[in-house]
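Lecture notes, part 5. Sequence design as translation. It can be helpful to think of inverse folding as translation between two languages: the language of shapes and the language of residues. The source text, in structure tokens, appears below.
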């Protein structure tokens, strides 16, 4: 007989390979960026009767990267309320979508007792969370904020004035991962190198004659910074002599400041560069520099000059600045100037200035816009212009007073 041999196969376990374990982490945080704005409304009695749905708006203010404005409706917002209530709203005034925020609207007690009328999201549990404003013009507030009869017999109204305080808390969320390293990089110093290149005069290949004064510069630098210089030096219609160019319509001190910006990428200190110490002289230089920047297509300098002129609006320079804004299409500057001139305490003095004569002759269309602007203020603002209130603000189109005499105001 044969022998049967059974062979048993045992399974040898395969050893498991061990891999190192790694863990990553991140943190999501949500918080609110809060800020408040106070809005003083004067002449409450005069504002009544302006019409249901018509409002008085505050200056715009910024919170959390968005622009906001307070709207007060003296005759209410809804026709069905028949002007029984005043309405109060906060509105999103910038282009944005789905902005989440918390709000607080307060009508301030002006008796000092602290009994303010407050509607707030802060410090409360909100079932639906923060309020979401879907688009520009979206509002939060109350159509029936307070009965007018109650308001007019309360301590909220004092000397025909109301004081509204609005707090906005914009919801911001961010996610942060672990910081692996921390190396502080030095700030860019490329403008320093170009600035020193101008100061040293090394490797210059161009002479610019301005009002009899000579300036040395580098063609490639000018071409890189200005499309006008680029066309003038390297374009198909370039000048015959590109080694020496005569600059027209710009004074030497202004061109010196322009050249400084081209190399240093910053507006020069006028007092240090030109020895100008008085405010009006600095404003005059900014006006000329804006015109030069527009002439040579240097947009960043044009914007910086426009911003500076907005900050330096004054009675003795606003008319010429307004003419400049019109001629060089500086719409923000033009708006600031129109608003300043239309103020009752400024209008007469500006009309009696030499600059206003220049504005009338050079930009007559702006005078029409100014009159329309003043008319809109009369219609929508609680402040009245030219109603014979004895405030000294009544003026005629030629700048004369109520008696027809034109008296030039001396401005120091």
């Amino acid at each position: 007989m044969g022998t049967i041999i059974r062979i048993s196969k045992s399974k040898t376990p395969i050893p498991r390979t061990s891999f190192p374990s790694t863990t990553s982490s991140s943190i999501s945080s949500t918080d609110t960026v809060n800020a408040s704005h106070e809005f003083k409304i004067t002449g409450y009695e005069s504002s009544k009767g302006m019409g249901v749905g018509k409002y008085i708006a505050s200056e715009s203010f910024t919170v959390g990267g968005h622009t906001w404005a307070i709207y007060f409706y003296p005759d209410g917002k809804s026709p069905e309320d028949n002007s029984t209530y005043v309405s109060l709203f906060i509105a999103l005034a910038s282009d944005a979508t789905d902005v989440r925020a918390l709000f607080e609207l307060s009508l301030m007690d002006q008796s000092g007792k602290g009994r303010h009328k407050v509607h707030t999201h802060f410090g409360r549990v909100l079932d639906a969370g923060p309020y979401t404003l879907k688009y520009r013009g979206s509002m939060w507030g109350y159509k029936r904020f307070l009965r007018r009869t109650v308001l007019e017999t309360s301590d909220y109204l004092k000397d025909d004035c109301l004081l509204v305080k609005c707090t906005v808390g914009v919801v911001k969320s961010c996610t942060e991962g672990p910081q692996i390293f921390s190396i502080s990089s030095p700030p860019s110093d490329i403008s320093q190198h170009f600035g020193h290149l101008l100061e040293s005069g090394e490797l210059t290949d161009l002479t610019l004659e301005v009002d009899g004064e000579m300036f040395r510069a580098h063609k490639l630098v000018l071409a890189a910074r200005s499309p006008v210089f680029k066309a003038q030096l390297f374009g198909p219609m370039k000048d015959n002599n590109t080694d020496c160019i005569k600059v027209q319509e710009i004074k030497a001190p202004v061109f010196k400041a322009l050249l400084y910006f081209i190399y240093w990428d910053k507006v020069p200190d006028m007092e240090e560069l030109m020895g100008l110490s008085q405010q009006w002289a600095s404003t005059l230089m900014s006006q000329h520099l804006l015109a030069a920047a527009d002439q040579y297509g240097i947009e960043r300098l044009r914007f910086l000059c426009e911003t500076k002129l907005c900050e330096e609006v004054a009675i003795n320079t606003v008319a010429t600045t307004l003419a400049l804004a019109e001629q060089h299409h500086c719409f923000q500057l033009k708006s600031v100037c129109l608003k300043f001139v239309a103020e009752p305490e400024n209008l007469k003095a500006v009309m009696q200035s030499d600059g206003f004569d220049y504005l009338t002759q050079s930009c007559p269309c702006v005078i029409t816009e100014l009159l329309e602007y003043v008319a809109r203020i009369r219609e929508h603002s609680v402040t009245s212009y030219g109603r014979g209130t004895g405030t000294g603000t009544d003026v005629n189109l030629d700048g004369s007073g109520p008696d027809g005499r034109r008296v030039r105001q001396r401005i120091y």
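The translated text above is only one of many valid answers, since several sequences can fold into similar shapes. Residues 3-8, 382-412 have pLDDT under 50 and may be disordered.
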